[in-house]
């Protein structure tokens, strides 16, 4: 399979790249400032350019999603836009634009997170934009044509990102193996419109 | 109670206004172009102005939420913004700004809808922005101070809006009475962070 990984330089992206390359999938690494293709997901033009460079593909994985993290008192219309432009519209535009470039029976797998339903202090922006992406995934699944599927993977805090553990009291970290299996279900399975809790 | 109803001229808003005025609550009707105060919820400045005019209040109900409704092929970064500016950030800004004006132990009640989990053709924008508002409600509930509560009411298609029935095959319409009870639970109950399915 030819798989575009957006956010390939991150903790999850690197892990998935290594695993999938070992299985001889062709991975196109797309990052903001490194990898095979540079992409700024906050810009629809940059996303369009990425797909033109990448050519037809079988699957897209996104592990990219900037959001505003910080004290509630700093949350405003302006700071809220970090997550809207990033994790929300960044990922939604990957699908709205990418559907013109993906092969029939291809799949999109986006990233959300437990914060949708399990809020934590400082992360209201992520709770909202995760919820948006999850609503979009369910709706896109009934609209996408040519057998194209779409799912989201929704981990808790990631095992390999211990720097975040203290922000997620009570959340059992998602192991890298669980995360991998979540993405496998979307990539190689038949499900669509699902929020996969790995 | 002094209650601001944003979207008081709509089907839900009118119904709730009539019911609550009969019970001697003071209702401030806020609409785009009529009512006691005019407000454009897509503008944070207009929202701020509304709260300054209204003065301290006990509860805010929002039944307002423009979204893009139309064929999937017309869904783009640009058309998606209708719901982001309207039903999503419009309602989120009512809370982020309104928290400075609401009385201690006050409540915010926003509107989402079954589309969050039950998508229908043409309504992907609403599914996404409903999901965003619901994620926000759960997160805001753990952040708001002074005993201020926040919930969302999530109806299916509204009994008194039969013009939409054909777009919601399989959805049993929410009666006006059920809707009223959903809002009552948030207004007069003690729950917070809930998505109330009336």
Summarize the structure.
Chains A, B: Belongs to the short-chain dehydrogenases/reductases (SDR) family. The structure is a homodimer. Chain A is an alpha/beta fold and about 200 residues long.
Polypeptide structure, described:
- Chains A, B: Belongs to the short-chain dehydrogenases/reductases (SDR) family.
- Chains A, B: It comes from Aquimarina aggregata.
- Chains A, B: Keywords: Oxidoreductase.
- Chains A, B: One of its GO terms (molecular function) is oxidoreductase activity.
- The structure is a homodimer of 198-residue chains.
- The model of chain A has no long low-confidence stretch (mean pLDDT 97).
- In chain A, strand 6, helix 5 (176-188) and strand 7 (195-196) form a beta-alpha-beta unit.
- Chain A is an alpha/beta fold and 198 residues long.
- Chain A has one domain: Rossmann fold, CATH 3.40.50.720.
- Chain A has five helices and seven strands; from the N terminus they run E-H-E-E-H-E-H-E-H-E-H-E.
- Chain A is globular and about 45 Å long.
- Helix content of chain A is 39%, strand content 18%.
- A seven-stranded parallel β-sheet of chain A has the order 3-2-1-4-5-6-7, with helices on both faces.
- Chains A and B meet through helix 3 and helix 4 of A and helix 3 and helix 4 of B.
């Amino acid at each position: 399979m030819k798989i575009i990984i957006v956010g390939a330089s991150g903790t999850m992206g690197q892990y998935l790249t290594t695993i999938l390359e070992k299985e001889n999938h062709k991975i196109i690494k797309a990052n903001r400032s490194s990898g095979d293709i540079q992409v700024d997901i906050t810009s629809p033009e940059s996303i369009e350019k990425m797909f033109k460079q990448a050519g037809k593909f079988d699957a897209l994985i996104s592990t990219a999603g900037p959001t505003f993290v910080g004290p509630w008192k700093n949350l405003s219309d302006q700071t809220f836009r970090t997550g809207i432009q990033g994790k929300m519209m960044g990922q939604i535009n990957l699908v709205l634009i990418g559907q013109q470039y993906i092969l029939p029976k291809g799949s999109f797998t986006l990233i959300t997170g437990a914060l949708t339903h399990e809020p934590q202090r400082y992360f209201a922006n992520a709770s909202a934009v995760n919820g948006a992406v999850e609503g979009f995934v369910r709706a896109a699944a009934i609209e996408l044509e040519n057998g194209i599927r779409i799912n989201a993977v929704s981990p808790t805090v990631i095992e390999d990102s211990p720097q975040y553990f203290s922000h997620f009291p009570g959340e059992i970290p998602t192991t890298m193996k669980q995360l991998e299996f979540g993405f496998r279900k979307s990539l190689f399975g038949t499900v669509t419109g699902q929020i996969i809790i790995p």
